[in-house]
Amino acid sequence: MASKLPQLQTKLAQASQYAAKHGGAWYKQLVERNKQYIQEPPTIEKCQTLANELFYTRLASIPGRYESFLKELDYVKHLFRNRQELKVENAGIGALFALECLAWFYGGEIVGRGFTFTGYHV
To answer: What span is annotated as the signal peptide, if there is one (predicted)?
Structure first.
């Protein structure tokens, strides 16, 4: 690990130099490209107002999302009650969805451990 420290310091220095050289131009280009999203005047009060609007809009959307969730849950319950009418295509889609959820779970676990498979760093 100690032998990798100088290499890491060199890479960090290179990244810092690149950011210092190109960061200002990138920032100006980013702001210019997204000018339609910028609120005028850019004050703290305006930012707080936008944050409150976002929070309360999302809060107000909870009942609609809850209703959608209940509909989906009712659909799954209906499928389980009528298993004999279940088509192979629907079962395959369900199995693929479950497999995808499992893969995302395992991927998240690996990322959470710092991209190690054993759980410890070498």
So the answer is: none
